[in-house]
Write a structure and sequence with these properties.
By secondary structure, this protein is mostly beta strands. 11% of the residues lie in helices and 34% in strands.
């Protein structure tokens, strides 16, 4: 027959663990961000953002590219029957923006978010008058403000 182990003393040995304090209702409420005043509990409006909440709110934000805007064109006015490289200065240009001069798109180049260049041939500057210059935003699909180019 197997013998049962006996412990010295009257009870089993206890492992040394720190005693945990029982969570009271007010302590649990404080951890959840609820302020307790007497018997009435008020919910705290300013909860501290945790890392998980920050990630969740960041994923909800939708980044929207701003619409392109032209401030000025250089040179303006230009001479008739000349080959010219126009520099468009403005804001929020992207590499997929398109320069439109009277609805047609000449050769253009993205320089930076504040500059674009368009090349006009002699054929493009043959007729004198005023031409509309716009930038079509590729990402947003919007068209910028109109700036006028004068051909003399």
């Amino acid at each position: 027959m197997a013998r049962k182990k006996r412990f010295r003393g009257s009870k089993r040995r206890k492992t040394s663990r720190p005693k945990r304090r029982a969570k009271t209702a007010s302590r649990r409420a404080r951890q959840k961000g609820v302020k307790t005043t007497g018997r009435v509990r008020k919910r705290s409006s300013a909860r501290k953002p945790t890392a998980a909440r920050k990630r969740a709110s960041a994923s909800k934000r939708v980044s929207r590219a701003a619409d392109p805007h032209i401030d000025w064109i250089d040179p303006n006015p230009i001479n008739r029957n000349s080959t010219v490289t126009l520099t468009l200065s403005g804001a929020d240009f992207t590499p997929d923006c398109i320069v439109l001069i009277d609805g047609a798109d000449p050769d253009y180049k993205y320089v930076s978010s504040r500059k674009m260049q368009a090349s006009l041939s002699e054929r493009d500057t043959a007729t004198p008058g005023r031409k509309d210059v716009k930038v079509h935003g590729g990402q947003t699909g919007t068209i910028s403000n109109t700036v006028y180019l004068t051909i003399e």
